[in-house]
Amino acid sequence: MAPAELLGLAQNFRNEVRALDVEYRSPRVLVSDLFLKSNATILKPYTQLQHLQSTMGLKFYFVPFSTAGVTIAVLAELEHGLKEPLAERIELSFKNGDTHTPEYLSKVNPNGVVPAIVHDGVPIWESGAITMYLGETFGVDRSLYPAAGVQRGEAMKWIVWSAVNLASHGRNLGAFLRAEKSDGETEAQTEAKKINGEAAKKGIDDGLAILDGALQGKDYLLGDIYSLADTHIWSFMAWLTMMKVDVDKFPNVKAWSERVGSRPALKNAF
């Protein structure tokens, strides 16, 4: 096909798009008009209505004062300054067994816990996965989550690390602090509980030391750039403080936590 014919074909396609009277934004990056013309059934025009419908399909399932606080903080950042919330909130109760109903287990989270989101009918659970998904879907355009590349990889590293490290040790410490001596408990069992509790405390301290080192000379985990990775890990700080973890031993973590907590979106997040 001659160059003039190619240009004519591209111009005809542009005219067809204008005739649709919608804002056109290709879901692909750096694709040619000719490619779009030949794949018109796959790459359809993106309209504000389609975006609105996608946003309206987001539901957030939570229990107050639970680990769902991570997602509460993330959504607070993403929704800050918006006229309407991104997600519909659905409050549940552990006491009433809401997270173990057949409907919740089959359609939301088969693990019977929170947080969980459902977006356009697709359930997503685990707080780390939720943060990364919301960041990729809504956070990039709001400069709250890195675009694809090494910085996104670094953000993902910290989000997953917090779930594997801080959260797991925190759960163990919480279980130890809540445990009461039962009738018939042997001295050996009592000692085992104590050992597990001390191990959990050490695990948290070791994790905070890693975080403290990573924040040396930096305002945020990614340097000068605040991201939802900071939001995600910051949400654990109040939980750790309630369990009498001494964060003051880690000056970089303490300064960072105060810096993040002073953000307008997070001042009244909980």
Automatic annotation (TrEMBL):
Belongs to the GST superfamily. Coiled coil: none annotated. GO terms for molecular function: transferase activity. Residues 153-270 form the GST C-terminal domain. It comes from Pochonia chlamydosporia 170. Residues 56-142 form the GST N-terminal domain. PANTHER family: GLUTATHIONE S-TRANSFERASE GSTA (PTHR44051:SF8), GLUTATHIONE S-TRANSFERASE-RELATED (PTHR44051). It comes from the Eukaryota. This is Glutathione S-transferase.
